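Customer escalation, tier 2.

The customer says the design service returned an amino acid string that "doesn't look like it belongs to this structure." They asked us to rerun it and document both sides in this ticket. The original structure tokens are below, unchanged.
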């Protein structure tokens, strides 16, 4: 509903106003349309000889008593109103008046029209208008009677058939202050970066008000607002840890009739640090009937909620994970398009991973890239075996940091990787010579010599060799006690005595100190090659 404006009119200062209009009833409008007027002055006003008009025609106002006392209502009906429809609504003290014709003006138009209250001298005392309809049987009421007839000062009645002859049902709707929006700058702050929060508040009511702003039940400030005034409250110098931080902003104003716009919940999304989570294992070529998946590990010291995080094969952030799942420090979670595993997370827009090589991106809830790898099949994995990360501290795109899972099942979802090396001991070392080697029986580079120096005086050692599919080829040490330094040899044969094919192999050594129970582990690549002519 928008009110019409007539800038050329000069109003008489008499304190009487059009206060309510019924222009659209259920069924036929006539003879039950009415116009209510109200004398908000301290004196009786004589309306003898006054007229009521719409855009098309005008009518004389007639009645038994045309002396309207202070703070009284008068209801002007159509000339043929039979007194039935509103007989149980109109109070006895209201003044009942009529027009001298059968209709008010040229019938009040339901979609758009205007009304003018004209004195006996021809002065326009009050005018108003509308350009959209009301629900059938509900009047249009003025909110603050001694305020101008502007758009925000009129509203559809709450009561069916309106309030002819007494206080309007929306009379208390003069105060309405609302929170329009809340935002923060920067939009996605880094951890502990200074953040300024802005709260937009508007007084959409008619009266000047004082409103109190609080956040999470803690008072922030008071704001003075005139009618239709907007104010931006600035809250500077905030700092937050990574993650989502929810705040409820609430305003309170005396006599505020509309509480629906008095509160707003705002979430500040703070980025995570690069490599807080890592891509830890990739199943890009599963056995037929199984799904692809990516495992991530939390290497931060904080629990992280994965809502809004995403695995992608391109650098565009889209939707991601739409469930609230928390991953604790140094725990694992598998993300897939299907819920294959007990602790897996469903991501509807999970990408298709190419067997020939592909990008894998990990984005946080703000769209920031937290980890990225471009794998190739030469790195390992395939044919139902996963591609495992060996260490957390080496670069994600270092091919030496990845290899085929050597687990019996072919992968280690939601568990520590079979190739995992937690740390490199400074005093521990390994030398492979020659590498590549060519065990072809010609007496030259036929044997691989593995010289080790452990960070323990004595230890229990396991040393196994795997092919690129993760199958164990031979054990060089099977949990045997060894001294700090020693040598292992491999002649390029399997446990069965068969010669191994030319290609790449993995040497996995684990040594546990006899007295400290600490472990030293390393994974090395071995190249078995033919002799060059």
């Amino acid at each position: 509903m928008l009110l019409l404006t007539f800038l050329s009119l000069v109003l008489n200062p008499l304190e009487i106003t059009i206060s309510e209009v019924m222009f659209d009833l259920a069924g036929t409008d006539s003879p039950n349309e009415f116009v209510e007027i109200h004398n908000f002055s301290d004196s009786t006003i004589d309306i003898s000889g006054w007229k009521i008009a719409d855009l098309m025609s005008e009518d004389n106002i007639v009645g038994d008593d045309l002396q309207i006392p202070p703070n009284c209502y008068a209801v002007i009906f159509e000339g043929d109103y039979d007194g039935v429809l509103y007989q149980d609504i109109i109070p006895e003290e209201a003044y009942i008046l009529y027009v001298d014709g059968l209709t008010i003006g040229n019938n009040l138009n339901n979609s758009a029209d205007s009304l003018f209250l004209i004195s006996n001298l021809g002065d326009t005392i009050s005018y108003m208008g509308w350009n959209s309809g009301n629900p059938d049987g509900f009047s249009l009421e003025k909110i603050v009677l001694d305020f101008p007839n502007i758009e925000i000062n009129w509203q559809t009645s709450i009561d069916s058939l309106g309030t002819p002859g007494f206080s309007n049902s929306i009379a208390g709707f003069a105060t309405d202050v609302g929170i329009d929006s809340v935002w923060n700058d920067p939009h996605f702050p880094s951890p502990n970066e200074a953040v300024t929060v802005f709260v937009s508040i508007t007084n959409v009511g008619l009266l000047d008000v004082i409103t109190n702003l609080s956040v999470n039940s803690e008072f922030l400030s008071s704001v003075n607002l005139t009618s239709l005034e907007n104010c931006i409250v600035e809250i500077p110098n905030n700092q937050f840890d990574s993650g989502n931080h929810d705040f409820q902003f609430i305003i309170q104003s005396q006599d505020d009739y509309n509480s629906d716009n008095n509160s707003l919940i705002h979430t500040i999304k703070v980025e995570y640090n690069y490599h807080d989570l890592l891509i830890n294992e990739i199943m890009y070529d599963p056995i037929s009937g199984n799904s692809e998946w990516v495992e991530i590990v939390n290497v931060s010291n904080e629990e992280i909620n994965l809502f809004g995080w995403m695995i992608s094969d391109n650098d565009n952030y889209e939707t991601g994970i739409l469930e609230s799942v928390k991953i604790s420090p140094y725990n694992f979670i598998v993300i897939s398009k299907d819920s294959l595993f007990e602790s897996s997370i469903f991501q509807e827009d999970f990408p298709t991973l190419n067997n020939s090589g592909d990008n894998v991106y990990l984005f946080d809830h703000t769209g920031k890239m937290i980890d990225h790898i471009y794998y190739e099949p030469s790195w390992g994995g395939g044919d139902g075996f996963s591609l495992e990360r060996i260490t957390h501290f080496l670069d994600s795109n270092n091919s030496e940091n990845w290899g085929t899972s050597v687990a019996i099942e072919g992968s280690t979802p939601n568990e520590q990787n079979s190739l995992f090396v937690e740390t490199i001991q400074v005093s521990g070392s390994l030398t492979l010579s020659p590498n590549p080697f060519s065990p072809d029986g010609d007496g030259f580079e036929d044997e691989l010599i593995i010289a080790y120096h452990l960070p323990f005086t004595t230890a229990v050692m396991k040393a196994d060799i795997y092919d690129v599919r993760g199958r164990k080829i031979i054990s060089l040490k099977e949990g045997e006690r060894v001294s700090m330094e020693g040598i292992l040899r491999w002649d390029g044969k399997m446990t069965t005595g068969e010669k191994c094919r030319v290609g790449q192999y993995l040497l996995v050594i684990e040594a546990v100190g006899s007295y400290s129970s600490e472990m030293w582990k390393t994974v090395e690549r071995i190249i078995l090659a033919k002799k060059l002519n």
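Tier 2 assessment: The sequence is consistent with the input. Residues 246 and 314 are 30 Å apart (CA to CA). Residues 1-11 have pLDDT under 50 and may be disordered. Sent an explanation to the customer and offered a walkthrough call.
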